[in-house]
Automatic annotation (TrEMBL), chain A:
Residues 19-55 form the ChsH2 rubredoxin-like zinc ribbon domain. The lineage of its organism: Archaea, Methanobacteriati, Methanobacteriota, Stenosarchaea group, Halobacteria. SUPFAM superfamilies: Nucleic acid-binding proteins. Pfam families: OB_ChsH2_C, zf-ChsH2. This is Zn-ribbon domain-containing OB-fold protein. Gene3D superfamilies: 6.10.30.10.
From TrEMBL, chain B:
Pfam families: Thiolase_C_1, Thiolase_N. PANTHER family: ACETYL-COA C-ACETYLTRANSFERASE, NON-SPECIFIC LIPID-TRANSFER PROTEIN-LIKE 2. Keywords: Isoprene biosynthesis. GO terms for biological process: isoprenoid biosynthetic process. This is Thiolase domain-containing protein. The keyword Transmembrane helix does not apply. Residues 251-387 form the Thiolase C-terminal domain. InterPro entries: Thiolase, Thiolase-like, Thiolase_C_2, Thiolase_N. It comes from Halomarina ordinaria. The keyword DNA-binding does not apply. Residues 22-225 form the Thiolase N-terminal domain. Residues 1-24 are annotated as: Disordered.
Amino acid sequence: MTWEPRPVPDVTPETEPYWTAAGDGELLVRKCHDCGLVYHYPRSLCPDCFSEAVEWCETSGHGEIYSYSVARTMSGWPDEDLPLVLAYVELEAGPRIMSIVDADPSAVEIGTHVAVRFVDAADSTIAVPVFVPVTD
Amino acid sequence: MTATEPVSIAGAFEHPTREAPDKSTMQLHAEVAKGALEDAGLEKRDVDGYFTAGVPEYETGLSPLVMADYLGLDPSYTDTTDFGGSSYVAHVGHAASAIRDGRCDVALVTLAGRPRSRGQATGSGARELRTFQDSFERVYGATNVTMYGMAAQRHMHEYGTTSEQLAEIRVAASHHAQYNEHAMYREPVSVDDVVDSRMVADPLHLLDCCVVSDGGGALVVVSEDVRSKLDRDCVELLGFGEAIGHHDAGRIDVTTTAADRSGSRAFAEAGLGPEHVEYASIYDSFTVTVLEAIEDLGFCEKGEGGPFVEGGTLQAPDGDLPFNTDGGGLCSNHPANRGGMTKVIEAVRQLRREANPEVQVDADVALAHGTGGSLGTRHGAATVVLGREDR
Protein backbone atom coordinates (compact mmCIF):
# COMPACT_ATOMS: atom_id res chain seq x y z
CA MET A 1 0.00 0.00 0.00
CA THR A 2 1.36 3.39 -0.91
CA TRP A 3 -0.07 6.84 -0.52
CA GLU A 4 0.16 7.87 -4.15
CA PRO A 5 -1.53 8.72 -6.47
CA ARG A 6 -2.98 10.76 -3.66
CA PRO A 7 -1.08 13.98 -2.89
CA VAL A 8 1.99 13.73 -0.71
CA PRO A 9 2.82 16.43 1.82
CA ASP A 10 5.18 19.24 1.07
CA VAL A 11 8.07 18.49 3.43
CA THR A 12 9.81 21.65 4.64
CA PRO A 13 12.77 22.09 6.99
CA GLU A 14 10.28 23.02 9.70
CA THR A 15 8.12 19.93 9.29
CA GLU A 16 10.62 17.33 8.12
CA PRO A 17 11.04 15.71 11.59
CA TYR A 18 7.26 15.20 11.77
CA TRP A 19 7.09 13.37 8.46
CA THR A 20 10.23 11.29 8.92
CA ALA A 21 9.07 10.29 12.42
CA ALA A 22 5.85 9.13 10.81
CA GLY A 23 8.03 7.11 8.46
CA ASP A 24 9.50 5.48 11.59
CA GLY A 25 6.05 4.82 13.06
CA GLU A 26 5.81 7.72 15.49
CA LEU A 27 3.24 10.51 15.64
CA LEU A 28 4.80 13.70 16.98
CA VAL A 29 3.31 16.91 18.31
CA ARG A 30 5.09 20.00 19.52
CA LYS A 31 5.18 21.29 23.09
CA CYS A 32 6.13 24.75 24.31
CA HIS A 33 8.43 24.80 27.35
CA ASP A 34 7.44 28.32 28.28
CA CYS A 35 3.63 28.21 28.24
CA GLY A 36 3.00 24.46 28.15
CA LEU A 37 0.92 24.45 24.98
CA VAL A 38 0.87 21.15 23.12
CA TYR A 39 0.03 21.93 19.52
CA HIS A 40 -0.43 20.71 16.00
CA TYR A 41 0.36 21.29 13.11
CA PRO A 42 4.06 21.69 13.81
CA ARG A 43 5.65 25.11 13.67
CA SER A 44 8.88 26.53 15.03
CA LEU A 45 7.46 29.27 17.23
CA CYS A 46 4.75 28.60 19.79
CA PRO A 47 1.49 29.91 18.31
CA ASP A 48 0.32 31.03 21.76
CA CYS A 49 3.38 32.83 23.14
CA PHE A 50 5.92 32.97 20.27
CA SER A 51 8.48 31.15 22.36
CA GLU A 52 11.21 29.37 20.43
CA ALA A 53 11.65 26.89 23.30
CA VAL A 54 9.51 24.22 21.69
CA GLU A 55 10.25 20.52 21.42
CA TRP A 56 8.97 17.49 19.59
CA CYS A 57 6.99 15.04 21.73
CA GLU A 58 5.99 11.52 20.86
CA THR A 59 2.31 10.75 21.33
CA SER A 60 0.48 7.53 22.08
CA GLY A 61 -1.14 7.80 18.67
CA HIS A 62 -4.50 7.26 20.35
CA GLY A 63 -7.46 9.57 20.38
CA GLU A 64 -11.14 9.86 19.64
CA ILE A 65 -13.13 11.29 16.79
CA TYR A 66 -14.12 14.90 17.42
CA SER A 67 -16.04 15.19 14.15
CA TYR A 68 -16.12 13.58 10.73
CA SER A 69 -17.74 13.66 7.32
CA VAL A 70 -17.97 11.04 4.62
CA ALA A 71 -17.15 12.08 1.07
CA ARG A 72 -19.36 9.97 -1.17
CA THR A 73 -17.92 11.36 -4.39
CA MET A 74 -14.77 13.32 -5.02
CA SER A 75 -13.29 14.34 -8.31
CA GLY A 76 -9.53 14.05 -8.48
CA TRP A 77 -9.37 11.23 -5.92
CA PRO A 78 -8.93 7.49 -6.49
CA ASP A 79 -12.35 5.83 -6.77
CA GLU A 80 -11.20 2.81 -4.79
CA ASP A 81 -10.66 5.07 -1.77
CA LEU A 82 -14.29 6.23 -1.70
CA PRO A 83 -16.28 6.69 0.40
CA LEU A 84 -13.66 8.59 2.33
CA VAL A 85 -14.03 9.35 6.04
CA LEU A 86 -12.42 12.70 6.78
CA ALA A 87 -12.16 13.41 10.49
CA TYR A 88 -10.74 15.52 13.23
CA VAL A 89 -9.13 13.23 15.78
CA GLU A 90 -8.70 14.64 19.27
CA LEU A 91 -5.43 13.12 20.41
CA GLU A 92 -4.85 11.97 23.97
CA ALA A 93 -1.97 14.44 23.80
CA GLY A 94 -4.47 17.26 23.30
CA PRO A 95 -4.67 18.77 19.83
CA ARG A 96 -7.33 17.98 17.25
CA ILE A 97 -5.70 16.89 14.01
CA MET A 98 -7.30 16.35 10.65
CA SER A 99 -6.85 12.93 9.09
CA ILE A 100 -8.59 10.01 7.46
CA VAL A 101 -10.28 7.21 9.37
CA ASP A 102 -9.53 4.12 7.32
CA ALA A 103 -12.76 2.26 8.04
CA ASP A 104 -16.24 1.61 6.77
CA PRO A 105 -18.29 4.75 7.48
CA SER A 106 -20.78 2.70 9.49
CA ALA A 107 -17.99 1.98 12.02
CA VAL A 108 -17.38 5.66 12.70
CA GLU A 109 -19.11 7.98 15.17
CA ILE A 110 -18.14 11.04 17.13
CA GLY A 111 -16.35 9.64 20.17
CA THR A 112 -15.11 6.51 18.41
CA HIS A 113 -11.69 5.56 19.76
CA VAL A 114 -9.01 5.43 17.11
CA ALA A 115 -5.32 4.69 16.82
CA VAL A 116 -2.78 5.96 14.34
CA ARG A 117 -1.47 3.95 11.40
CA PHE A 118 1.08 5.11 8.88
CA VAL A 119 0.87 4.91 5.14
CA ASP A 120 4.14 5.13 3.27
CA ALA A 121 4.61 7.67 0.58
CA ALA A 122 6.21 5.76 -2.24
CA ASP A 123 9.10 8.00 -3.10
CA SER A 124 10.72 8.81 0.21
CA THR A 125 11.29 7.92 3.84
CA ILE A 126 8.21 9.76 5.01
CA ALA A 127 4.77 8.41 5.85
CA VAL A 128 1.35 9.91 6.37
CA PRO A 129 -0.58 9.32 9.61
CA VAL A 130 -4.13 7.98 9.29
CA PHE A 131 -6.36 6.41 11.92
CA VAL A 132 -8.33 3.20 12.44
CA PRO A 133 -11.02 2.43 15.00
CA VAL A 134 -9.89 0.40 18.02
CA THR A 135 -11.68 -1.21 20.92
CA ASP A 136 -10.36 -0.37 24.36
CA MET B 1 -12.56 53.76 17.41
CA THR B 2 -15.79 55.46 16.51
CA ALA B 3 -16.89 55.96 12.95
CA THR B 4 -17.96 59.56 12.60
CA GLU B 5 -18.28 60.66 8.99
CA PRO B 6 -21.28 58.98 7.36
CA VAL B 7 -20.36 56.58 4.57
CA SER B 8 -22.96 55.24 2.16
CA ILE B 9 -23.48 52.63 -0.51
CA ALA B 10 -24.68 54.57 -3.54
CA GLY B 11 -24.55 51.90 -6.22
CA ALA B 12 -25.20 48.17 -6.35
CA PHE B 13 -25.38 45.88 -9.35
CA GLU B 14 -25.62 42.14 -9.72
CA HIS B 15 -24.77 40.54 -13.03
CA PRO B 16 -27.87 38.77 -14.36
CA THR B 17 -25.91 35.91 -15.92
CA ARG B 18 -25.52 32.57 -14.21
CA GLU B 19 -23.59 30.97 -17.05
CA ALA B 20 -21.19 32.97 -19.18
CA PRO B 21 -19.36 30.62 -21.55
CA ASP B 22 -18.60 33.36 -24.04
CA LYS B 23 -17.30 36.02 -21.69
CA SER B 24 -14.09 36.50 -19.78
CA THR B 25 -13.95 37.04 -16.04
CA MET B 26 -12.41 40.43 -16.72
CA GLN B 27 -15.36 41.35 -18.92
CA LEU B 28 -17.77 40.40 -16.14
CA HIS B 29 -15.82 42.65 -13.73
CA ALA B 30 -16.16 45.51 -16.18
CA GLU B 31 -19.85 44.92 -16.78
CA VAL B 32 -20.70 44.91 -13.08
CA ALA B 33 -18.51 47.96 -12.46
CA LYS B 34 -20.37 49.83 -15.20
CA GLY B 35 -23.70 48.69 -13.81
CA ALA B 36 -22.96 49.79 -10.25
CA LEU B 37 -21.65 53.19 -11.34
CA GLU B 38 -24.75 53.77 -13.48
CA ASP B 39 -26.90 52.74 -10.55
CA ALA B 40 -25.16 55.33 -8.38
CA GLY B 41 -25.29 58.05 -11.04
CA LEU B 42 -21.50 58.30 -11.14
CA GLU B 43 -18.91 58.08 -13.89
CA LYS B 44 -15.89 55.84 -14.14
CA ARG B 45 -13.63 58.88 -13.83
CA ASP B 46 -15.16 59.57 -10.41
CA VAL B 47 -13.66 56.35 -9.01
CA ASP B 48 -10.64 56.99 -6.81
CA GLY B 49 -10.72 53.84 -4.67
CA TYR B 50 -10.71 50.27 -5.96
CA PHE B 51 -11.31 47.08 -4.01
CA THR B 52 -11.32 43.50 -5.29
CA ALA B 53 -10.00 40.07 -4.42
CA GLY B 54 -9.13 37.20 -6.64
CA VAL B 55 -9.35 37.08 -10.41
CA PRO B 56 -9.73 33.32 -10.52
CA GLU B 57 -8.77 32.66 -14.10
CA TYR B 58 -5.47 34.41 -13.54
CA GLU B 59 -4.15 33.46 -10.16
CA THR B 60 -1.36 35.96 -10.15
CA GLY B 61 -1.98 37.55 -6.78
CA LEU B 62 -1.64 40.85 -8.60
CA SER B 63 -5.32 41.57 -8.94
CA PRO B 64 -5.14 45.33 -8.31
CA LEU B 65 -2.62 45.70 -11.14
CA VAL B 66 -4.41 43.35 -13.49
CA MET B 67 -7.83 44.80 -12.82
CA ALA B 68 -6.97 48.52 -12.67
CA ASP B 69 -5.19 48.08 -16.00
CA TYR B 70 -8.12 46.25 -17.59
CA LEU B 71 -10.76 48.62 -16.22
CA GLY B 72 -8.71 51.73 -16.94
CA LEU B 73 -8.82 52.98 -13.36
CA ASP B 74 -6.56 55.50 -11.67
CA PRO B 75 -7.20 54.79 -7.99
CA SER B 76 -5.48 56.67 -5.21
CA TYR B 77 -6.32 53.82 -2.88
CA THR B 78 -6.52 50.05 -3.46
CA ASP B 79 -7.21 47.08 -1.22
CA THR B 80 -7.25 43.41 -2.13
CA THR B 81 -7.90 41.80 1.22
CA ASP B 82 -8.72 38.21 0.37
CA PHE B 83 -10.36 35.81 2.77
CA GLY B 84 -12.63 34.15 0.27
CA GLY B 85 -16.30 34.95 -0.01
CA SER B 86 -16.31 37.30 2.96
CA SER B 87 -13.79 39.58 1.26
CA TYR B 88 -16.33 41.78 -0.48
CA VAL B 89 -18.22 42.49 2.72
CA ALA B 90 -14.90 43.42 4.28
CA HIS B 91 -14.11 45.67 1.31
CA VAL B 92 -17.16 47.77 2.17
CA GLY B 93 -15.77 48.29 5.66
CA HIS B 94 -12.27 48.92 4.37
CA ALA B 95 -13.62 51.41 1.84
CA ALA B 96 -15.38 53.25 4.65
CA SER B 97 -12.12 53.50 6.58
CA ALA B 98 -10.29 54.78 3.52
CA ILE B 99 -13.01 57.34 2.86
CA ARG B 100 -13.00 58.53 6.49
CA ASP B 101 -9.21 58.83 6.28
CA GLY B 102 -9.58 61.08 3.26
CA ARG B 103 -7.87 58.59 0.94
CA CYS B 104 -10.74 58.38 -1.54
CA ASP B 105 -14.35 59.49 -2.05
CA VAL B 106 -15.77 56.99 -4.53
CA ALA B 107 -14.77 53.40 -3.85
CA LEU B 108 -15.60 50.69 -6.37
CA VAL B 109 -15.79 47.06 -5.21
CA THR B 110 -16.00 44.33 -7.84
CA LEU B 111 -16.29 40.55 -7.95
CA ALA B 112 -16.69 38.22 -10.92
CA GLY B 113 -16.00 34.65 -11.86
CA ARG B 114 -16.92 31.75 -14.15
CA PRO B 115 -16.58 28.48 -12.19
CA ARG B 116 -19.63 27.01 -13.94
CA SER B 117 -18.36 27.61 -17.44
CA ARG B 118 -14.96 26.35 -16.43
CA GLY B 119 -16.42 23.10 -15.13
CA GLN B 120 -14.83 23.38 -11.71
CA ALA B 121 -15.65 20.69 -9.14
CA THR B 122 -16.02 23.39 -6.59
CA GLY B 123 -17.07 21.87 -3.31
CA SER B 124 -16.39 18.18 -3.80
CA GLY B 125 -13.13 18.16 -5.74
CA ALA B 126 -9.71 17.33 -4.35
CA ARG B 127 -7.39 20.28 -4.79
CA GLU B 128 -3.68 20.59 -5.23
CA LEU B 129 -1.75 21.71 -2.18
CA ARG B 130 -1.36 25.46 -2.17
CA THR B 131 -0.83 26.50 1.44
CA PHE B 132 1.41 25.35 4.25
CA GLN B 133 -1.58 23.89 6.07
CA ASP B 134 -2.71 21.89 3.05
CA SER B 135 0.00 19.32 3.81
CA PHE B 136 -1.94 18.50 6.97
CA GLU B 137 -5.45 18.86 5.51
CA ARG B 138 -5.90 18.72 1.74
CA VAL B 139 -3.38 15.89 1.65
CA TYR B 140 -6.14 13.76 3.18
CA GLY B 141 -8.62 14.69 0.50
CA ALA B 142 -10.32 17.35 2.58
CA THR B 143 -12.77 19.20 0.35
CA ASN B 144 -14.91 22.23 1.04
CA VAL B 145 -18.01 20.14 1.51
CA THR B 146 -16.45 17.58 3.85
CA MET B 147 -15.02 20.34 6.01
CA TYR B 148 -18.45 21.96 6.32
CA GLY B 149 -19.84 18.46 6.83
CA MET B 150 -17.63 18.11 9.90
CA ALA B 151 -19.06 21.36 11.24
CA ALA B 152 -22.62 20.12 10.72
CA GLN B 153 -21.88 16.70 12.22
CA ARG B 154 -20.45 18.17 15.40
CA HIS B 155 -23.28 20.71 15.69
CA MET B 156 -25.77 17.86 15.48
CA HIS B 157 -23.81 15.91 18.09
CA GLU B 158 -23.56 18.75 20.59
CA TYR B 159 -26.94 20.39 20.15
CA GLY B 160 -29.26 17.82 18.65
CA THR B 161 -29.61 19.75 15.41
CA THR B 162 -31.33 17.68 12.71
CA SER B 163 -31.10 17.39 8.95
CA GLU B 164 -34.71 18.55 8.80
CA GLN B 165 -33.79 21.76 10.60
CA LEU B 166 -30.91 22.42 8.22
CA ALA B 167 -33.33 21.77 5.36
CA GLU B 168 -35.60 24.60 6.60
CA ILE B 169 -32.88 27.02 5.50
CA ARG B 170 -32.98 25.73 1.91
CA VAL B 171 -36.77 25.72 1.97
CA ALA B 172 -36.87 29.42 2.86
CA ALA B 173 -34.26 30.29 0.23
CA SER B 174 -36.16 28.38 -2.45
CA HIS B 175 -39.40 30.10 -1.45
CA HIS B 176 -37.71 33.42 -2.20
CA ALA B 177 -35.96 32.22 -5.37
CA GLN B 178 -39.25 31.47 -7.11
CA TYR B 179 -39.76 35.23 -7.48
CA ASN B 180 -36.25 35.92 -8.81
CA GLU B 181 -36.23 35.58 -12.58
CA HIS B 182 -32.44 35.28 -12.57
CA ALA B 183 -32.18 32.56 -9.92
CA MET B 184 -30.59 29.29 -11.06
CA TYR B 185 -33.09 27.16 -9.15
CA ARG B 186 -36.57 28.68 -8.87
CA GLU B 187 -38.57 25.61 -7.90
CA PRO B 188 -39.70 25.72 -4.25
CA VAL B 189 -38.54 22.67 -2.33
CA SER B 190 -39.77 20.95 0.80
CA VAL B 191 -37.91 19.64 3.82
CA ASP B 192 -38.39 16.14 2.41
CA ASP B 193 -36.90 17.20 -0.93
CA VAL B 194 -33.75 18.31 0.85
CA VAL B 195 -33.29 15.32 3.14
CA ASP B 196 -34.15 12.92 0.31
CA SER B 197 -31.59 14.44 -2.04
CA ARG B 198 -28.41 12.43 -2.40
CA MET B 199 -25.78 12.61 0.29
CA VAL B 200 -22.70 14.50 -0.85
CA ALA B 201 -20.69 14.54 2.37
CA ASP B 202 -22.44 13.36 5.50
CA PRO B 203 -24.54 14.92 6.88
CA LEU B 204 -24.85 17.41 4.00
CA HIS B 205 -27.15 16.51 1.11
CA LEU B 206 -27.01 17.93 -2.38
CA LEU B 207 -29.68 20.51 -1.52
CA ASP B 208 -27.72 21.60 1.55
CA CYS B 209 -25.11 22.92 -0.88
CA CYS B 210 -25.02 26.16 -2.85
CA VAL B 211 -25.14 26.46 -6.60
CA VAL B 212 -22.09 26.73 -8.83
CA SER B 213 -22.65 29.74 -11.04
CA ASP B 214 -20.89 32.32 -13.12
CA GLY B 215 -21.58 35.97 -12.54
CA GLY B 216 -20.51 38.85 -10.40
CA GLY B 217 -21.47 42.03 -8.68
CA ALA B 218 -20.24 45.45 -7.75
CA LEU B 219 -20.81 48.14 -5.15
CA VAL B 220 -20.01 51.83 -5.02
CA VAL B 221 -19.22 53.22 -1.57
CA VAL B 222 -19.12 57.00 -1.25
CA SER B 223 -18.27 59.79 1.16
CA GLU B 224 -20.92 62.08 2.61
CA ASP B 225 -19.76 64.85 0.32
CA VAL B 226 -20.41 62.71 -2.75
CA ARG B 227 -23.66 61.27 -1.41
CA SER B 228 -25.11 64.72 -0.78
CA LYS B 229 -24.76 65.54 -4.49
CA LEU B 230 -26.35 62.35 -5.80
CA ASP B 231 -29.95 62.07 -6.90
CA ARG B 232 -30.19 58.57 -5.51
CA ASP B 233 -31.46 56.74 -2.43
CA CYS B 234 -28.37 55.61 -0.63
CA VAL B 235 -27.86 53.12 2.17
CA GLU B 236 -25.75 54.14 5.15
CA LEU B 237 -23.06 51.89 6.58
CA LEU B 238 -23.87 51.91 10.30
CA GLY B 239 -21.32 49.38 11.46
CA PHE B 240 -18.65 46.99 10.23
CA GLY B 241 -16.67 44.18 11.81
CA GLU B 242 -14.33 41.48 10.61
CA ALA B 243 -12.62 38.51 12.19
CA ILE B 244 -10.66 35.40 11.33
CA GLY B 245 -11.33 31.94 12.67
CA HIS B 246 -8.77 29.15 12.44
CA HIS B 247 -7.45 25.82 13.65
CA ASP B 248 -6.19 27.48 16.84
CA ALA B 249 -3.19 25.18 17.28
CA GLY B 250 -5.49 22.17 17.52
CA ARG B 251 -8.26 23.63 19.72
CA ILE B 252 -10.62 24.26 16.80
CA ASP B 253 -14.33 24.30 17.64
CA VAL B 254 -16.17 23.70 14.38
CA THR B 255 -19.53 24.66 15.89
CA THR B 256 -18.53 28.31 16.33
CA THR B 257 -17.49 30.74 13.61
CA ALA B 258 -15.68 34.05 13.56
CA ALA B 259 -19.11 35.66 13.09
CA ASP B 260 -19.24 35.83 16.89
CA ARG B 261 -16.56 38.53 16.71
CA SER B 262 -17.26 40.18 13.36
CA GLY B 263 -20.91 40.52 14.33
CA SER B 264 -20.33 41.95 17.78
CA ARG B 265 -17.81 44.41 16.35
CA ALA B 266 -20.27 45.55 13.68
CA PHE B 267 -23.11 45.90 16.16
CA ALA B 268 -20.90 47.84 18.59
CA GLU B 269 -19.93 50.30 15.88
CA ALA B 270 -23.56 50.69 14.86
CA GLY B 271 -24.77 51.08 18.44
CA LEU B 272 -27.38 48.47 17.62
CA GLY B 273 -27.99 44.80 18.36
CA PRO B 274 -29.42 41.79 16.57
CA GLU B 275 -32.85 42.73 17.89
CA HIS B 276 -32.79 45.79 15.61
CA VAL B 277 -32.15 43.82 12.40
CA GLU B 278 -35.26 43.52 10.25
CA TYR B 279 -33.65 41.80 7.26
CA ALA B 280 -30.51 39.64 7.15
CA SER B 281 -28.36 38.55 4.22
CA ILE B 282 -26.37 35.63 5.58
CA TYR B 283 -23.70 33.81 3.61
CA ASP B 284 -25.02 30.44 2.57
CA SER B 285 -22.36 28.29 0.99
CA PHE B 286 -24.10 25.44 2.83
CA THR B 287 -27.13 25.32 5.08
CA VAL B 288 -24.90 24.82 8.11
CA THR B 289 -23.03 28.03 7.25
CA VAL B 290 -26.27 29.92 7.84
CA LEU B 291 -27.18 28.00 10.97
CA GLU B 292 -23.91 28.70 12.75
CA ALA B 293 -23.83 32.34 11.60
CA ILE B 294 -27.34 32.96 12.93
CA GLU B 295 -26.23 31.78 16.35
CA ASP B 296 -22.89 33.57 16.31
CA LEU B 297 -24.44 36.86 15.16
CA GLY B 298 -26.70 36.70 18.21
CA PHE B 299 -30.08 36.07 16.59
CA CYS B 300 -30.51 33.13 18.97
CA GLU B 301 -28.52 31.36 21.66
CA LYS B 302 -25.63 29.06 20.71
CA GLY B 303 -27.02 25.67 19.82
CA GLU B 304 -30.59 26.98 19.33
CA GLY B 305 -30.21 27.58 15.59
CA GLY B 306 -32.09 24.41 14.70
CA PRO B 307 -35.32 25.23 16.55
CA PHE B 308 -34.90 28.91 15.56
CA VAL B 309 -35.10 28.26 11.81
CA GLU B 310 -38.16 26.01 12.10
CA GLY B 311 -41.61 27.34 11.34
CA GLY B 312 -40.75 29.82 8.60
CA THR B 313 -38.58 32.18 10.69
CA LEU B 314 -36.39 32.94 7.68
CA GLN B 315 -39.18 33.33 5.13
CA ALA B 316 -40.02 36.75 3.77
CA PRO B 317 -42.02 38.78 4.18
CA ASP B 318 -43.63 37.49 7.37
CA GLY B 319 -40.92 35.51 9.17
CA ASP B 320 -39.23 36.98 12.22
CA LEU B 321 -35.86 37.08 10.45
CA PRO B 322 -36.38 37.19 6.69
CA PHE B 323 -33.12 36.25 4.97
CA ASN B 324 -31.60 35.97 1.51
CA THR B 325 -34.65 37.17 -0.34
CA ASP B 326 -32.98 36.78 -3.75
CA GLY B 327 -32.69 33.02 -3.15
CA GLY B 328 -29.11 33.42 -1.98
CA GLY B 329 -26.24 31.17 -2.83
CA LEU B 330 -28.35 28.10 -2.18
CA CYS B 331 -30.74 28.88 -5.06
CA SER B 332 -29.82 32.01 -7.02
CA ASN B 333 -26.09 32.38 -7.56
CA HIS B 334 -22.66 32.08 -6.03
CA PRO B 335 -20.44 33.93 -8.48
CA ALA B 336 -16.78 32.92 -8.43
CA ASN B 337 -17.66 30.55 -5.57
CA ARG B 338 -17.78 33.70 -3.49
CA GLY B 339 -21.14 34.97 -2.31
CA GLY B 340 -20.34 37.89 -0.03
CA MET B 341 -20.90 40.47 -2.72
CA THR B 342 -24.45 39.38 -3.44
CA LYS B 343 -25.21 39.38 0.28
CA VAL B 344 -24.55 43.11 0.41
CA ILE B 345 -26.39 43.76 -2.86
CA GLU B 346 -29.62 42.14 -1.69
CA ALA B 347 -29.46 44.00 1.64
CA VAL B 348 -29.14 47.25 -0.32
CA ARG B 349 -32.11 46.26 -2.50
CA GLN B 350 -34.18 45.53 0.58
CA LEU B 351 -33.43 48.88 2.21
CA ARG B 352 -34.14 50.71 -1.05
CA ARG B 353 -37.39 48.78 -1.49
CA GLU B 354 -36.09 47.30 -4.74
CA ALA B 355 -36.35 43.63 -3.78
CA ASN B 356 -38.78 41.40 -5.64
CA PRO B 357 -42.21 42.62 -4.46
CA GLU B 358 -43.33 39.28 -3.06
CA VAL B 359 -40.39 39.22 -0.67
CA GLN B 360 -39.95 42.92 0.01
CA VAL B 361 -39.56 43.57 3.73
CA ASP B 362 -40.33 46.85 5.44
CA ALA B 363 -36.85 47.08 6.92
CA ASP B 364 -34.98 50.16 8.06
CA VAL B 365 -32.00 48.22 9.38
CA ALA B 366 -30.42 45.26 7.61
CA LEU B 367 -27.36 43.09 8.13
CA ALA B 368 -25.13 41.43 5.57
CA HIS B 369 -22.67 38.78 6.64
CA GLY B 370 -19.97 36.94 4.72
CA THR B 371 -18.12 33.73 5.56
CA GLY B 372 -15.03 32.91 3.51
CA GLY B 373 -12.76 29.91 3.49
CA SER B 374 -13.94 26.93 5.50
CA LEU B 375 -15.64 26.44 8.85
CA GLY B 376 -13.60 23.23 9.14
CA THR B 377 -10.33 25.15 9.21
CA ARG B 378 -9.58 28.78 8.40
CA HIS B 379 -12.28 31.27 7.62
CA GLY B 380 -12.85 34.96 7.36
CA ALA B 381 -15.99 36.65 8.65
CA ALA B 382 -17.19 40.12 7.78
CA THR B 383 -20.40 41.80 8.85
CA VAL B 384 -22.01 45.10 7.89
CA VAL B 385 -25.02 46.72 9.52
CA LEU B 386 -26.82 48.95 7.04
CA GLY B 387 -29.61 51.50 7.42
CA ARG B 388 -32.00 53.49 5.26
CA GLU B 389 -31.08 57.11 4.85
CA ASP B 390 -34.46 58.22 6.21
CA ARG B 391 -34.74 55.64 9.01
